[in-house]
Amino acid sequence: MNPIYLILIFIVATLVGYFIIKNVPSLLHTPLMSGMNALSGITILGAVAAVGLSVLYEDQSIVVGQILGGLAVIAATVNVVGGFVVTHRMLKMFNKKKKGGNK
Amino acid sequence: MITPTIYIIICAVLSVLVLVGISMMSKVKTAVMGNFLSAASVFVGVLITLLYNDIISIASMYIYMLVGIIIGSTLALRVKMIQMPQLVALLNGVGGFASALVGILTLLKIGQTEQAYPIFSDVTAVLAIVIGMITLVGSLVAAGKLHKLLPQKPVIWKNHALILNFSLVLLTITIIYSAFVGKIISQPVDIAIILIVSIAISSLFGYAFSIRVGGADMPITISLLNSLSGVAGAIAGMAISDILLVSVGGIVGASGLFLTQIMCRSMNRSLMDILTGKTSVAGKKTTKTQAVTEPKKDEKAETKQTSTKDVLKNAKSVIIVPGYGMALAQAQHQVKMLANTFESKGAQVRYAIHPVAGRMPGHMNVLLAEADVSYEQLYEMDAINDDFKNTDLVVVIGANDVLNPAARDAEGTPIYGMPVLNVDQCPNVIICNYDMQPGYAGVENPLYHKEGVTMMLGDAKDSLAKLVEEL
Questions:
Q1: Residues 6 or more apart in contact with residue B207 via CB below 8 angstroms
Q2: B161 and B232 both lie in a single domain
Q3: Is B286 within a domain?
Q4: Do B109 and B193 have their domain in common?
Q5: N or C: which end of chain A has fewer CB within 10 A?
Q6: What is the pLDDT of residue A79?
Q7: Cβ–Cβ below 8 Å for B245 and A43
Q8: Residue B400 belongs to domain spanning
Q9: Is residue B289 situated within a structural domain?
């Protein structure tokens, strides 16, 4: 894909992200940060593609691809799964309390 | 199976879903759903990538993912709420590491489709390695500091600024070098040099940058690293032409930066000051005071007890100010108990949350939520600051710098100009701190010696239990 498009997408995403988060109450800063953190594990897409394609193309360097790519997939998965679960745990506490308040 | 057009459309839809998920997370009611939506989008993203590249049948992938899922969920489920900041930092670093690895693979041309723009791909790959490694090492240091594996005070080397600037220059040269892979010496040699230099120097940079940050600036550092890990992902996405990676990484990068800005503003510090280590003044002072660890039981507290008792009993409105000390002592449940006792006597209880109380943005909110404190009772600084003078009693639990009146007039100290809670305007204040030492900023707190202020030194849990008893 043309680099210009990629850079354009990056800029648009940056701007939209910037505006969307403007109104977040500080109460939610920590869950939000950890949610963002989970999303930064989106690199998993790149890692998955690299591992898969290195097998598919039967590269000479398939071993390196499996080791480095495998590490990347593991690391990214830890980031994504850990991040979302932690976020969920935090958010659940806010909600639990809300129900308690209604009683 | 999936044509490029369909793939691009799906990526666009998923990006929008991620955005919707994030915006849902900005309201308490929809936050849980928002989190699910983001998680689901990532899951679909992985699935689409597998299908699009026709690699869904590669078995080893699922083993790696399974390992990641097991490690990730164990970490996330086992960790205590108090350890949340270091876990977030750690996960952040791991994400950066993954981006760096993707960058390395791209540079080595392993598992890559033919790139139409090899120079762009090489340069962005090296950028991804650099930012990813900085994120990894920086986050590890931050997590180590938060977990007390490393000294919390800022560590400053002799030629700290020089080392940082020099590594920046070296990294810039490496990135420029990567535009000429195969044209300087030979392809393998060029790549080897670039890899070694970029990995080594960016690790050094991450370490040097993070080790200099003191405890009080940790929230800002974590938030900044969070933003960096998003940027690393986005750039890795540019290297491999993955639209979804670029857009989601960009969103994370921007919002992380914005959070960082919010925090800087509430501490009245510019990001540059923190990055260039201007806060180091504080470090030297804290080192001296940290030698004294023995909590001194203050006798004044004993003699004042009778009058304190009256104040406690007659208080009609109470503001509770929590700080990092509450997190350390894990006293949030005792705080809630105290609040309940006040409420059962008909007093109004509110919590004043300074934006940078604790070691992470919103740190106090999470802890209080764990103790079942209703978020309607939590007030941000601006919302409650004018009410301190009309309040009967303020109870401070393990907070110091965020209520230090010295921030208003003590020019030249690290906290000068930082907005603080107007605790000093309240006629009666009870401070449950571990000791009389200055807080992280290393500035003596004149409030401790003010009339109407009762110090209860020692473990916050015990102090709070005593207060509940007296009520």
A1: B137, B138, B141
A2: yes
A3: no
A4: yes
A5: C
A6: 93
A7: yes
A8: 299-470
A9: no
- Is B249 within 8 Å of A42 when comparing Cβ atoms? yes
Looking up tokens 């690699």 gives B55
Is residue B104 within 8 angstroms of chain A, CB to CB?
Answer: yes
Q: Can you tell me the mean pLDDT for A57-62? A: 71
* Inter-chain residue contact B101 with A68, CB threshold 8 Å: yes
The token pair that represents A11 in the structure block:
């800029």
B-chain CB neighbours of A92 within 8 Å are 32
On whether both B241 and B363 belong to a single domain, the answer is no
Residue B369: partners with Cβ closer than 8 Å, 6 or more residues away:
A90, A93, A94, A97, B375
So what's the ipTM on this one?
0.89
> Which tops the pLDDT comparison, B5 or B216?
B5
Q: What value does the mean pLDDT take over residues B412-425?
A: 76
Clarify whether residues B306 and B263 are in a common domain.
Answer: no
The verdict on B327 and B427 lying in the same domain is yes
At B20-71, the pLDDT tens digits run 888 888 777 888 899 999 999 999 999 998 988 888 888 888 999 999 999 9
Best residue in B366, B368, B374 to probe A by mutation, most A CBs within 10 Å? B366
Residues B239/B102, Cβ–Cβ less than 8 Å = yes
SS3 B353: strand
Q: Determine the Cα angle at B154 with ends B79 and B446, to 5°.
A: 95
Closest to B19 (Cα-Cα) out of A89, A12, A27: A12
Q: Kindly provide the b/e burial profile for residues A62-101, where b requires at least 16 CB atoms within 10 angstroms of the residue's own CB.
A: bebbbebbbbbbbbbbbbbbbbbbbbbbbbebbeebeeee
Instruction: Indicate if B34 and B150 belong to the same structural domain.
Output: no
Q: Do B104 and B232 share a structural domain? A: yes
Burial of B425 (0-12, 13-18, 19+ CB in 10 A): middle
Residue of B nearest to A70 (CA): B64
What is the least distance, in Å, from the CA of B296 to any CA of chain A? 34
Taking a C-beta distance cutoff of 8 angstroms, is the pair B454, B429 a contact?
yes
Find the CATH number of the domain harbouring B361: 3.40.50.1220
Partnered with residue B176 across adjacent β-strands are none
User: In the structure encoding, which two tokens stand for residue B146, read together?
Assistant: 């938060």
Answer with the one of B9, B34, B55 that is the final residue of a domain: B55
**Count of the separate structural domains present in chain B:** 3
Tell me: the pLDDT tens digits for B128-164? 999 999 999 999 998 888 887 887 777 778 888 888 8
Per-residue model confidence as pLDDT tens digits over B77-105: 888 777 778 888 899 999 999 999 999 99
Strand order across the beta sheet in which B393-397 lies: B378-380, B348-353, B317-322, B393-397, B429-432, B453-455
Spans of all domains in chain A: 35-103
Note whether residue B175 is domain-resident: yes
Pair A74, B351: CB distance under 8 Å: no
**How far is B93 from B80, CA to CA, in rounded Å?**
19
pTM as predicted: 0.79
Given the residues B401, B409, B435, B459, select the one marked as catalytic: B401
What are the tokens at B428?
Answer: 């009666």
Of B22, B226, B378, the CB nearest to A20: B22
Whether residues B264 and B308 share a domain: the answer is no
